[in-house]
Amino acid sequence: MQIKDGVILAGLKIEMRPVLILAEKIWEKYGQPLTVTCGLDGEHSAGSLHYYGFAVDLRIRDFSEGQRQSAWANLKSKLGIAYDVVLHKTHIHVEFDLGKS
Length: 101
What we know:
By secondary structure, the protein is an alpha+beta fold. It has one domain. The chain has helices spanning about 15-30, 65-80; strands at about 1-5, 35-40, 55-60, 85, 90-95. A five-stranded mixed beta sheet has the order 1-2-3-5-4, covered by helices on one side. Helix 1 runs antiparallel to helix 2 (about 65-80).
C-alpha cells in the first residue's frame, strides 16, 4: 500500500482496516498499487467522516473505465451495507456508515 504525501492516517478507526486490506487485494488484481489519497486530511464538507477517521479515498485514476467500475462494484459488494462506497472519476471514497453498523 502506498500513501500519498501529506495524507494523514493516524487516527483512522479500526473499522477502516477491512477496507484497506480488501482494496489492496482488488487493486493487485489490476496490477495497480493501492494508493490512499485522503484520510483525516484535506478539505471536506462539514460533518465529513474523513475528519473522524471513518473515511478514506483510494486512487483509481490509472484504471480503465471498466476497471474502475469493476473495482468499485467488487469493493462495494464485499464490504457490505455497513460501508458507503462512492465512485468518483479519480478515486473511490469509502466510509463506514455509523447509522448502518
